[in-house]
Design a protein that fits this description.
It contains ten helices and 14 strands. By secondary structure, it is an alpha/beta fold. A six-stranded parallel beta sheet has the order 3-2-1-4-7-8, with helices on both faces. A six-stranded parallel beta sheet has the order 11-10-9-12-13-14. Strands 5-6 form a two-stranded antiparallel ribbon. The longest helix is centred in the middle third of the chain and has 22 residues. The chain is elongated, with a radius of gyration of 21 Å.
């Protein structure tokens, strides 16, 4: 890095708390807000009442940036903050980094003349995040299943970054892995990796033999018909961001065990997840001429 910079971190879970510590350890001036349930070293400033955004060269919001009703995603805060209040406090022209930016958030940032970048949309972070996501999914499956993954029959829905990596890890544990996709290119890759192959749009009629189903597709792929076909003791883990890929109401109605495992990196490996965010933030700051 060429130089240190001044950064304000607002809200988030343990990933943002550890991110603040990592950035401070690298010599940056760090101000935190809406993270008061986490103890910080003396070197990190507290941002109340103006969140420290006026002095900061860049503001870092969490991933996802918002929760319901347009509130800042701040599970470690004792106070709720409307995202509009946060954005209105930031001077025009400032660089704002946020994860999983909604259209409403982007529109408000543009209205306030803020330079908003969605760091979760960066390919390097998506790749790095796939590792703790996959490890967290494996941990969850081992905790919830009454059988070993070794020898189990597993369906991974989607062959993107997370799906392909998860299939590889499951295969290394000697599970019988089937992966679903939609394109001929993905079908070829799945077959070359030694997995079974299904079409994501035509799962019905092929689901009766699975012990575990893990979805990575953020669109409805498991409705009532598909869920009813799965064995009653099949575990379903949905890793997809909202709106998810599982009809959880239908799963509850027919007694299928379905878990929506959101934000796994922050739950199972917050330090590693924070390192991934830090590296992505540094790349963006360098591109913007702030480092």
């Amino acid at each position: 890095m060429k130089k240190s910079t001044s950064l304000a971190i607002l809200g988030g879970d343990m990933r943002q708390a550890f991110l603040a510590q990592l950035l401070c350890a690298d010599g940056h001036t760090v101000t935190v807000s809406a993270l008061e349930r986490h103890p910080f070293d003396a070197g990190i400033r507290l941002g109340a009442p103006d969140f420290g955004v006026k002095e900061a060269q860049a503001i870092i919001l969490p991933m996802p940036a918002e929760r319901e009703e347009g509130l800042l995603n701040a599970p470690l805060s004792n106070t709720s903050y409307h995202m509009q209040t946060i954005l209105d406090a930031i001077p025009a022209g400032k660089l704002v980094l946020a994860g999983a930016v909604s259209p409403a958030l982007r529109a408000r940032a543009e209205q306030n003349d803020l330079h908003l970048i969605d760091y979760l949309a960066r390919e390097e972070l998506a790749i790095r995040n796939a590792v703790p996501t996959c490890e967290g999914a494996l941990q969850l499956a081992m905790e919830e299943l009454p059988i070993t993954l070794h020898g189990s029959h597993v369906l991974v829905i989607g062959n993107g970054r997370i799906g392909s990596m998860l299939a590889q890890k499951l295969q290394a544990l000697h599970a019988h892995v089937t992966v679903s996709a939609r394109s001929a290119k993905d079908f070829a890759r799945i077959e070359a990796a030694g997995h079974g192959c299904l079409h994501t749009g035509a799962l019905a009629g092929h689901l009766s033999g699975f012990d575990l189903v893990v979805n990575t597709v953020p669109a409805r792929v498991l409705g009532m018909a598909e869920l009813a076909e799965l064995p009653p003791d099949c575990l379903i883990i949905d890793l997809a961001s909202k709106p998810g890929g599982v009809d959880f109401n239908a799963a509850s109605q027919i007694g299928r065990h379905a878990i929506w495992a959101l934000s796994l990196p922050g739950k199972v490996a917050p330090v590693s997840a924070a390192c991934a965010i830090r590296d992505t933030v540094y790349t963006i700051l360098q591109e913007e001429g702030l480092l």
